Amino acid sequence: SGKTYEHLLVSSPKPGVGFIQLNRPKALNALFTPLILELNSALRDFQADKSISAIVLTGSEKAFAAGADIKEMKDLTFSHAYGSDFIESWSDLVTFLKKPLITAINGYALGGGCELAMMGDILYCSSKAVFGQPEVKLGVIPGAGGSQRLPKAIGKSRAMDAILTGDNITAKQAGEWGLVAKVFETPEECVNGALATAEKIARYSQIAVKAAKEVVNKSQDLGIREGVEFERRVFHGLFGSQDQKIGMKAFAEKQKPSWTNE
Ligand code: HXC
């Protein structure tokens, strides 16, 4: 979009793909308010940009993000936190984004960094990535979804273990437990893998992709019966799209579909 940011690098390195790199290296990408506001703005721009179909979010090799900014939080009072609904701006990051977000996690993803990573629709990491919710060591608890998303991702007992001890989760554990979809050897492979997946998704009908993301996300909130009914309604709705006709006609005629996104 041509905007420049102080704490982000934003580009579109492949057709249909938006790329955001957190860029606050001196603080290991600690997530302070100015960075979160920029991230919201960059994601909103990609959401509005018709040429962008999928987004990759990453940090540096050393840190995806080492957490919410402890120095910014340390003097916060209850009345200010409650009154300003501190961290509420973080929840914007997921609720409005309809396009797939892949988080490519290298290095530390701790506290708010782990929570931000888990806001991705798909998580990829490299072999030296370190996850964790160490808030208990600071006298607090996760505040941006960690206590809810981590148990959904890895199960209650493992999540309790991590959150009550503050111990790290290794990349190997993250892969075995399904916190991430893939573990790559190197950070470069991880980012390239995320970009390749985003590019692949960007080549499908954006109507189908949007509907698929919406129904999978519903599975996190709804019971199985309501979820399956919701899925069926959305499935029915897609027979009102041109791309359903195009996709199925192309299969029957052994052609490649060319999507209209309508
Ligand atoms: C502010 C941070 C930071 C953080 C690192 N830095 N993490 N500043 N908030 N979360 C700063 C350090 O103060 C230091 O600044 C610089 O980044 C480099 O960090 P070092 O500690 O010198 O690096 P290293 O020895 O390699 O250790 C890396 C580390 C450690 C293990 C990741 O930095 C660490 O433990 N960080 C805190 C992790 C954490 O507790 N995260 C959860 C935060 S609470 P200077 O100026 O000294 O060079 C949280 C709550 C979320 O996230 C709730 C809702 C959002």
UniProtKB/TrEMBL annotation:
GO terms for biological process: fatty acid beta-oxidation. This is Probable enoyl-CoA hydratase, mitochondrial. InterPro entries: ClpP/crotonase-like_dom_sf (IPR029045), Enoyl-CoA_hydra/iso (IPR001753), Enoyl-CoA_hydra_C (IPR014748). Gene3D superfamilies: 2-enoyl-CoA Hydratase, Chain A, domain 1, Lyase 2-enoyl-coa Hydratase, Chain A, domain 2. It comes from the Eukaryota. SUPFAM superfamilies: ClpP/crotonase. One of its GO terms (cellular component) is mitochondrion. Pfam families: ECH_1 (PF00378). Transmembrane segments: none annotated. Belongs to the enoyl-CoA hydratase/isomerase family.
